[in-house]
Design brief:
The chain has 145 residues and is mainly alpha-helical. It is 48% helix and 10% strand. The N and C termini lie far apart (54 Å).
Length: 145
């Protein structure tokens, strides 16, 4: 058991029954901002000496979180629609992969250009199957179309 308290005293605005769902809804947003603290995002190494630049960085980070959340949602919806799964970190099938894991899967992919010929390296069968869930525009980015 735990106690939830609020400073909203008007029961018409927030009933006792609504306090717990509202609290739980905040958790998904807070979890989203956790990626900003990830060492791979390099937020801690940035020094900005003006308020405008701090505001601009906050806006860019917020947009990154939006794109991250939309990608996460699109992948899970696509998996659910097709009743399909992809492999997780342990090699087991999952219909609810984390987007962080998907990003890690794609970290070693490189674009090679040689004599005006473009080619993607390290694009495995598993990565190609994940790309199918994002649609043709994403596949085009990886030269699959």
């Amino acid at each position: 058991m735990f106690i939830l308290a609020t400073n909203v005293l008007d029961a018409d605005k927030l009933s006792n029954e609504d306090v717990l769902p509202e609290y739980k809804a905040q958790q998904s947003t807070e979890r989203g901002f956790r990626f900003l603290k990830d060492p791979l995002f390099f937020t801690s190494t940035v020094f900005l000496n003006s308020r405008k630049r701090v505001g601009a960085l906050a806006m860019v980070m917020g947009l990154c979180l939006l794109v991250y959340s939309l990608g996460h949602r699109a992948l899970r919806q696509s998996l659910k629609r097709g009743s399909q799964t992809i492999q997780n970190q342990l090699g087991k099938p999952t219909a609810t992969p984390t987007f962080h894991w998907v990003f890690q899967c794609f970290m070693s992919i490189n674009l090679l250009t040689f004599a005006s010929l473009k080619q993607i390296s390290n694009l495995s069968e598993q990565r190609c199957s994940i790309l199918l869930f994002f649609g043709a525009p994403c596949g085009k980015y990886y030269l699959l179309s």
